Automatic annotation (TrEMBL):
The keyword Translocase does not apply. This is Uncharacterized protein. Keywords: Glycoprotein, Leucine-rich repeat, Repeat, Signal. Gene3D superfamilies: Ribonuclease Inhibitor.
Length: 225
């Protein structure tokens, strides 16, 4: 057994479930990529038998045509910091599964079919980077980001926003980068839209349909570049 193995990539194969026999015996695994397989469902306890589950910090399950992550699908991943779920068929943020990995710092959910962000969807106090690019999100409820106070990077490009409201960012005043490009329904940037993100350094609004920028839209961003 390769007990010294720290990184394993099984990309672009035909796996239909999280691999068990063999992989679960590796003791020092820190990074696992199962990108581009056929894993449509992550069953409960999928990683619980992994000997390296207390060492695994990076997991890539992107491009698997995945539609379901069961509530205990990520159980046991006690130190997971990066989780990639891009290019799947998720219709909602798997909040019951994510609550079991509060150590997450980076979460990627781009190119899915997500329409809403529930108030309890992101109970991730250590999260610093969140990607929800290319989904079907029209707005963010005021309390949806309350549970990610350390968020610094937020990627919302390629969604269905029609306006930018300041209340979306009320709880993420540490935000440094906000990407909202390619929101083709986005027509207005409202007054004081960014008043709650005074640390914003980079804002991306390219390829939208913006026709109105209200006079005080960019006020209260002293660090804006």
């Amino acid at each position: 057994m390769l007990n010294s193995l720290e990184s394993l990539e099984i990309r672009s194969n035909h796996l239909t479930s999280i691999p068990q026999i063999g992989v679960n015996e590796i003791r020092s695994l820190k990074s696992l990529s199962l990108y581009d397989n056929l894993i449509s469902i992550v069953e409960n306890n999928a990683f619980l038998s992994y000997h390296s589950r207390t060492k695994l910090t990076k997991l890539d399950l992107s491009a698997n045509n995945m539609s379901v992550i069961f509530p205990q699908g990520l159980l046991g991943l006690e130190v997971l910091e990066q989780l990639s779920l891009d290019k799947n068929r998720l219709r909602m943020i798997p909040e019951d599964a994510l609550v079991l990995v509060p150590t997450l710092e980076q979460l990627s959910l781009g190119v899915n079919e997500i329409e809403t962000i529930g108030v309890k969807a992101l109970q991730l106090p250590n999260l610093k980077s969140l990607s929800l690019e290319v989904n079907k999100i029209k707005s963010i409820p005021p309390d949806a980001l309350q549970t990610v106070p350390n968020l610094a990077y937020l990627y919302l490009a390629g969604n269905l926003f029609t306006s930018i409201e300041s209340t979306m960012f009320f709880y993420v005043n540490r935000l440094k980068v906000l990407s909202m490009s390619n929101n083709h329904e986005l027509r207005i940037v409202t007054a004081n839209a960014f008043q709650y993100v005074p640390n914003l350094l980079r804002l991306e609004l390219s390829d939208c349909a913006i026709s109105v920028i209200e006079p005080t839209a960019f006020h209260k961003i002293p660090k804006f570049k």
